[in-house]
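Per reviewer request, we include the raw input and output of the structure prediction for the construct analysed in the revised manuscript.
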Amino acid sequence: MSSRPSVVISGISAAAARGGIVLDPKQQELVERLADLESPLRSLSGSRRGLYIHGPAGRGKSWLADAFFNAVPTSRKARVHFHSFFDDLHRRLHDRRDESQALQRAIDDVTGRSRLLLFDELHVHDPGDARLLTRLLDYFCKRRITVVVTSNYAPDSLLPNPIWHHVFEPGIALIKTHLDIFELTGTIDYRTVEHSHDRGFAAGEWTIAADSISATSEPASLAVRDRRFPVLSVRPGQLVATFAQLCESPVSAIEYLQWARTYRHWVISEIPRFDDAHPEAQQRFINLVDILVETDVCVSFVSPHRLTEFLSSATNGRPDAFRMSSRMQLLRK
């Protein structure tokens, strides 16, 4: 990489060496751009631009951003993921609903008054989220917080639904004004490359089974905030449920996150072909895979269909289906 002294470059290089990773030229270019953020982080008086990194699934955006985050020598930093961040923020807003400046106080609760914020896997499809995200971006810019974003979407492609796209145009303007834009191009999806299956999501597998998994003798259910959700069984550390129970019922990211933190091994059975599921169930499954990968939960997916058949049917233009397809490549083959 560069010969100039840089804690960030040295840290990312060391992380790559430990993982046996050889960065390609475009990834090396991104490392240089990340290192450019090092100077503004050294003092409160510097310019406070950030970096918006976008590109195809599996190009290493999250890995490089994480390596940068770990290398930056400050404790005043926070890494957040789209689903968990909004879940946490909504809960904090609810707790502070009677206070003045509730949003600002809730943001400070979540980010811990950080000077560096890494926002991983940004995607916007809901106009309500778009409005809130615009207010967040405005707040971060005014506080001169260095923001690093990873996304599969170029800024102008966020909230792609033409009916609602105008709602996020102010947020897009903030991104383009206050953050540098870097497209991590390339044709290799590194999730398809051989990697370790020792733990977490990558230790999971997709198995073929025509028969459903038997439920426990007693009906099982999970409770979240006065709501109950039926599942096949619950054991210490393990959750067993059907695709219908998890994705065809009105289950949200809030529930998925809580269960992922509680149960480190999941079994999801009776998974249909992707295009045979209702669009809302498709989106819930995409969100669920996002969360299971982010929280690194080991999952046994059980379906009468092969994974290749399931993924080949996930090309119907459903938002973020391409990211789900890439992430499923992490599983043991």
